[in-house]
Amino acid sequence: MKLRFGSPGECGNERETLSHTWLERRLLDELKMDCEDWLNAAPNSPIPEVLAGIPLQIVKLTRFVDRMVEDFSPGHLVDQCPLAQLEGSTKQLLREALHTAYVASGVILPYQAALRLATEEFSKTAAKAETVWRTGDRERKAEFLSELEAKALALREALALPQGVILP
Q: What is the pLDDT of residue 8?
């Protein structure tokens, strides 16, 4: 049985920043609003800031994916009310038991694999940005921006799941 409860603290905040603040409000919005200007940019013109910042965001995404098993663990629930009122050793025992069962269930692994794949695919496409930009070729830029948008949408979808701590 899979239950979703709450938001896993830092992990939920980080996902919100990556998904909504950066991916949705920056990259995807700018791809729509500035596409024509970008296509008309001269060869060797500076790469747009949002595209130049993608490598840093990929580092953050990769770190997020690598920590998913720990960050979505139901062991975090032990520190929330009313369990937070328990004695420290009891909380530790519960935290370990919940986390062990959760890891053994493998329930997070499909989500992690999907996000890892989406991140890798997005990264492969984004790696072409500098080369495509230097050419100044409108058609190549259009193909690149279209592919980047498709990979960004797939990444947004993969980032949407799971919603909070997962119980095995």
A: 47
Asked if 41 and 136 count as a contact pair (C-beta separation under 8 A), the reply is yes
Reported as a single tens digit per residue, the pLDDT across 9-41 is 556 678 888 888 899 999 999 999 999 999 998
**pLDDT, tens only, 81-92:** 788 888 999 999
Cβ atoms of 73 and 168 closer than 8 Å:
no
Question: One-letter amino acid identity for 130?
Answer: E
Helices marked H in the chain: 10-16, 29-33, 35-40, 49-52, 54-71, 88-105, 109-126, 129-135, 138-159
Q: How many domains does the chain have?
A: 2
Q: Are residues 64 and 77 in the same domain?
A: no
**Residue 39 belongs to some domain of the structure:** yes
CB 166 within 8 A of CB 3: yes
pLDDT value at 1 more than 90: no
Q: Is 99 left (phi over 0), alpha (psi -120 to 50) or beta?
A: alpha
12 against 150, higher pLDDT = 150
Q: Name the residue range of residue 43's domain.
A: 10-72+108-161
The reply to whether 44 falls in a domain is yes
Preceding peptide of 46 cis, ω within 30°: no
Question: Domain check: are 30 and 56 in the same one?
Answer: yes
